[in-house]
């Protein structure tokens, strides 16, 4: 399982995958369930598009990567992601995993930022300390 070798920013990872004390669900599961619920109301041929700015862009990127591993979100085409001013979320292994998901047409990501925007450089690489589940 190559996912074990991918390191993510620990804060972003914890936000999406830490189990809540009251419901024992993760934020990822809550969002994924809502996407699936509303998607079924739209119709069986729904497609997923995710967008975010800054912190929202970081969480959108991570959410979309994991969602792209689930057939329920990619059966009608790749998940499309658009981020603006997204900070770094992980290292090279994650970039390789993203490229793989793009190659197998499960994910499409477009990142936009200003050339001098410092947010794309933050956080520093020493913060990438948590391995994926």
Polypeptide structure, described:
With 133 residues, the chain is of the alpha/beta class. It is 40% helix and 16% strand. Strands 2-3-4 form a three-stranded parallel β-sheet. The protein has a two-stranded antiparallel sheet with strand order 1-5. Strand 3 (79-84), helix 5 and strand 4 (107-112) form a beta-alpha-beta unit.
- Order of strands, main sheet, comes to 2-3-4
Number of helices: 5
Considering DSSP H and I runs of 4 or more, what fraction of the residues is helical?
Answer: 25-40%
Pairing-aware structural class of the strands and helices?
alpha/beta
Strand content: 15-25%
Biggest sheet, in brief? 3 strands, parallel
Rg to the nearest angstrom? 15 Å
Backbone shape = globular
Tell me the span between the first and last alpha carbons. Answer: 10 Å
Oligomer: single chain
Mean pLDDT level = 87
Low-confidence segments: 124-133
Total number of strands:
5
* Element-by-element helix/strand order: EHHEHHEHEE
Attribute tags:
133 residues; alpha/beta; 3-stranded parallel sheet; two-stranded antiparallel sheet; 5 helices; 5 strands; disordered C terminus
Quick structural overview:
The protein has 133 residues and is an alpha/beta fold. The protein has helices spanning 10-17, 27-42, 55-67, 71-74, 92-103, and strands at 7-8, 49-53, 79-84, 107-112, 130-131.
What's the arrangement of secondary structure elements?
Layout: E1 7-8, H1 10-17, H2 27-42, E2 49-53, H3 55-67, H4 71-74, E3 79-84, H5 92-103, E4 107-112, E5 130-131
Parallel strand pairs: 2-3, 3-4
Antiparallel strand pairs: 1-5
